[in-house]
Amino acid sequence: MSPLSRVRLDELLQELLDRVGEVVASRERLRSLLDAVVGIGSGLELRGVLTRIVEAASALVGARYGALGVIGPDRTLVEFITHGVSTEVHAQIGDLPRGRGVLGLLIEDPRPVRLPDITKHPNSYGFPPNHPPMHSFLGTPIRIRDQVFGNLYLAEKQGATQFTQDDEEIAVALAAAAGVAIENARLYATAHRRERWLAATAEITNVLLGQVNRTSALQLVARRAREVAEAQIVLVLLADEDTGHLTVEVVDGDAPDLSSAVVSLSDTVFAQAIGDAGHVLVDDLGKAAPWPGPVSTGPALITPLAAADTLHGVLVVAHPAGASSQPEDLPMLRTFAGQAALALERARAQDEREQILVLEDRERIARDLHDVVIQRLFATGLHLQTTAQLATRPELGQRISTAVDDLDTTIRDIRTAIFELRTPVNATLRTEIRDLIAEAAQTLGFRPDLRLSGPIDSAVPDQIRPDLLAVIRETLSNTARHARATTAHITIEATGGQLTVTVADNGVGVADTQPRGGLVNLRERATLRGGAFTIAPNTPTGTAIVWSVPI
């Protein structure tokens, strides 16, 4: 062969060897791509999947630095996962990018971008201080179906000045597989979250099968809702239809002391949640209502606690600042809130059933006292009165008359007890009066004698109760300060449409029967109610004050 032919043959052989090398390299890169696809799909925890995607992409195209930016609803980067940058450099750089400049190109126009020098692009903002130098750049969007989940950014091609077309094709292929892996991870996270919601709902259902304590059930609801939703604060507010207010019944989580805080329904987002919307999402719980103290959170979801057209209150789930609420939580949270409302219904039904049982038992006791005990006492009194007429000795007749008087007093006391038994369980006016007298006994040095007559609890209206307690408090206070008494008798009667309070002591008495000082207020209270107030000497010594109003 001529020298020219041998040169030509050498060139052909070298070209053949180069193409064989390219085929081998392509096979290796394809194998590496398949390994990377299998690797990024090996786990179902979303954060781990994203980290593996960045690491695999950087290795496949030979990039020194890699990052994956997750795009939020406002079309900015809400999360930025990096590779090749140490923790120390991270701290020196400071805040991570939000998706402007060259990084924003893929957000505005989600197509692959390959640049030989990122710093020379007209949209380049430059790098912040302490940022490692970067020149060659390759970026491609990551899609989940028709939605762009985020972008894959690669920089600083190792061993070359810029990324090649093959690198771009490898990155696009990996991004396609990454979209599937991310979707699987998100579906797994959603399924796991729903499983936790269902488990919490089942736990509440098991609680409903037994004896329900309202406070304990609501505390369990709040605790489980905070754990499953990974929230900062969970509040349970109960509604008062009479006042139109919501009262914080349960607080769970890292929050200021909001226990028993009261907020108005009007002109707040709570009214909107209770209305047609069914739920409301606010950016910050502190802006939802005028709280008694500072409250600062991230997004908060408010959903009503309602069952059988009965509003019990609202359930508030607030996430930490910077976090985002999960859309898939909403239907599960509403179901969970329905279970919580059912717990309130069950607790109220149990309370009502127990109250009915108590009332039935009290009614039976009252009936027995009236029909049996009082009749026997009447009969005994009549026999004693007949016997007194036959007694020949005066002292014997006197003793019998005293016994009859004692029986009359006992009958009055039993009637008073019957009135107490037949009043609602939650009526506590008698208890308040006794507590007030017990408190005054410490100042007086003795315990005043108390006599109650008539249905005090049921007959005295709520608006008159404060006046009644004020009369007792003021008169006993005057007795302690001025009377120098050793005994005092208080009689409270609710009969014939009239409430009468009489306070009599055995003190030094008064020279002037015109009210002065605090007694003037008592006269004004009686006048405003259409009643009367009098001060008179007591027999044999002391003062008698009578305050009466119509009821």
UniProtKB/TrEMBL annotation:
Transmembrane segments: none annotated. It comes from the Bacteria. The keyword Transferase applies. Residues 45-192, 213-354 form the GAF domain. Keywords: Kinase, Transferase, Two-component regulatory system. Pfam families: GAF_2, HATPase_c, HisKA_3. InterPro entries: GAF, GAF-like_dom_sf, HATPase_C_sf, HATPase_dom, Sensor_HK_TwoCompSys, Sig_transdc_His_kin_sub3_dim/P. This is GAF domain-containing protein. It comes from Phytohabitans maris.
